[in-house]
From TrEMBL:
Its main location: cytoplasm. Belongs to the SUA5 family. TsaC subfamily. Residues 1-180 form the YrdC-like domain. It is found in: Cytoplasm. Keywords: ATP-binding, Cytoplasm, Nucleotide-binding, Nucleotidyltransferase, Transferase, tRNA processing. It catalyses: L-threonine + hydrogencarbonate + ATP = L-threonylcarbamoyladenylate + diphosphate + H2O. HAMAP family: TsaC. Its EC number is 2.7.7.87. PROSITE patterns: YRDC. The gene is tsaC. Residues 158-180 are annotated as: Disordered. This is Threonylcarbamoyl-AMP synthase. Required for the formation of a threonylcarbamoyl group on adenosine at position 37 (t(6)A37) in tRNAs that read codons beginning with adenine. Catalyzes the conversion of L-threonine, HCO(3)(-)/CO(2) and ATP to give threonylcarbamoyl-AMP (TC-AMP) as the acyladenylate intermediate, with the release of diphosphate.
Length: 180
């Protein structure tokens, strides 16, 4: 885990298992690392990316403007496979939020991903490990088939076995944007 965290801190892009699929991760504050990840996926920056952490405290600065009801809805689903869109008030770089006024956050309970973010010391970018238009990788061999040696590290373990990707909800309305 320490070696994967060091690779992230050095600007690397890695693959790791999540609750349902394999993900690609990098340091969200490293513009070059995010650009490289987006090129690997053939994903436009405008779409935005998810920030994942095994420590909800990593998101405290982004959650403090929410109402008590909004926080209660989020707290009821975390840690777990629910991603929440919260207003970012320009607290995240545009290469993370894309064209949106919100940022996607997930407090994960996947053992590898949670430990990775804690070892890294903050949230990490996590997006499905697949080039645009391809199915998300559910197994390590698929990650390797998609990306070969273009990644700096491919984690161990397996996904959490969920059949569907993480649910995405809007914190302002509570509305489910993508069922999980």
């Amino acid at each position: 885990m320490a070696s994967a965290a060091r690779i992230l801190a050095a600007g690397g892009v890695i693959a790791h298992p999540t609750e349902s699929v394999w993900g690609l991760a990098c340091d969200p504050n490293n513009r070059d690392a995010v650009a490289r990840l987006l090129r690997l996926k053939n994903r436009p920056m405008e779409k935005g990316l998810i920030l994942v952490s095994g420590n909800a405290g990593h998101f405290s600065g982004l959650l403090h403007n929410l109402s008590g009801d909004q926080r209660a809805r989020i707290d009821a689903t975390w840690p777990g496979p629910v991603t929440w869109l919260v207003p970012h008030f320009d607290q995240v770089p545009p290469w993370i939020s894309g064209i949106h006024h919100s940022v996607a956050l997930r407090h994960t309970n996947h053992p590898f991903t949670a430990a990775l973010s804690r070892a890294f010391g903050g949230p990490i970018v996590s997006t499905s490990a697949n080039p645009g238009g391809c199915q998300p990788a559910r197994h390590k061999f698929q990650v390797l088939r998609y990306f070969g040696n273009a990644l700096d590290f491919v984690g161990g373990g397996s996904t959490g076995g969920r059949a569907s990707p993480s649910e995405i909800r809007d914190a302002a309305s509570g509305r489910v944007l993508r069922a999980g």
